Amino acid sequence: MGLSPDALADRIGISRAALYRAEKGGIAKVDMLTAIARELNVSLPTLLGVGIEYIPNAVAFFERMRQIEEGAEQIIGLFSPVSYLLTTRAYDRALAEVFAESVPATRQAEATKILEILAQRKDTFHRRKPSLASIISASEIERFLRSGLEGRTDLPPAQVVARRSVALAEVRHVISLLRNPEIGVQLGVSSEPFPSTSFQIVRGAGAATLTVSPFRLGHNPNITVGVGFISSAPEAVELHEGIARNLWDSSMRGAEAAEQLEHLIERYRDAAP
């Protein structure tokens, strides 16, 4: 909502210290929580995280993902073209350029914040090392190799080649993980149709949380339009886990999956040096 903690506290007529205690899960009166929810334009269950959280902006959505991943023991992900947590630092640098060319000037501050949150997510993943099962779409990888990492279609030819090189390097990184997997990391490459939205299931401390994202970080990214949602409802988690399980069972893994991606690289070898 673009409000500072002090501004929010002032609008609902409480002290900053009282708001801080509420943020930390301290005892708070229902009328105060209701006032906070009203100012933030969310329901009280959403504020408390006990219902479905509908999140209409990418900054808040990725921040919630970061918070949830802080307690992750296991992550199951279907993100295009590959789970962000497995990308390289070079991908982060290229993503900053892509946001600069694709996000309106009035929203560049949001793009910068998203990049900061994403970097924190990646740092947390490498520090905590939860198990990760990531399912990759072969068709999305093919599109990634063909088009590269770009935010618009009118880039100069030299820049197009550079962005395709970034995509090529990321796919080669995935191949290295398939051939020499890191401890706790499992990758599958699927030729089956994928959902139109990405999702991730995080398990930790005896609970499971589903995040469903309309936001895209790969080719032709979208961080400006969409409503993501987060839920711990058993039915939602189980249904999406079933999708992941079916795709995983039909996926190629290990050397077979690596060879499939190498064939795709060979097909598009002229697209990047």
Task: Describe the structure concisely for a colleague.
The chain starts with a helix and ends in a 6-residue tail after the last helix. The chain contains eleven helices and seven strands.
Annotation keywords:
Endonuclease, Chain A, 52% helix, 11 helices, seven-stranded mixed β-sheet
Number of strands: 7
Quickly give the structural class: alpha/beta
Nearest-integer average pLDDT: 91
Beta-strand residue percentage: 5-15%
Strand order of the largest sheet: 1-7-6-5-2-3-4
N-end to C-end Cα span: 44 Å
Please summarize the sheet with the most strands.
7 strands, mixed
Described by the principal axes of the CA atoms, the overall outline is globular
Write down the secondary-structure element order. Answer: HHHHEHEHHEHHEEEEHH
Please give the CATH class of the largest domain. Answer: Alpha Beta
CATH topology of the largest domain: Endonuclease, Chain A
In CATH terms, the superfamily of the largest domain is Endonuclease Chain A
Radius of gyration: 20 Å
CATH architecture level-2 label of the largest domain: 2-Layer Sandwich
Number of domains: 2
Residues in helices, as a percent range: 40-55%
Explain the layout of strands and helices.
Blueprint: H1 5-12, H2 16-23, H3 30-40, H4 44-48, E1 53-55, H5 58-69, E2 74-78, H6 89-102, H7 108-128, E3 131-137, H8 138-147, H9 157-179, E4 185-190, E5 198-204, E6 207-213, E7 228-231, H10 234-249, H11 254-267
Parallel strand pairs: 2-3, 3-4
Antiparallel strand pairs: 1-7, 2-5, 5-6, 6-7
Helix pairs in contact: 1-2, 1-3, 5-7, 6-7, 8-9, 8-11, 9-11
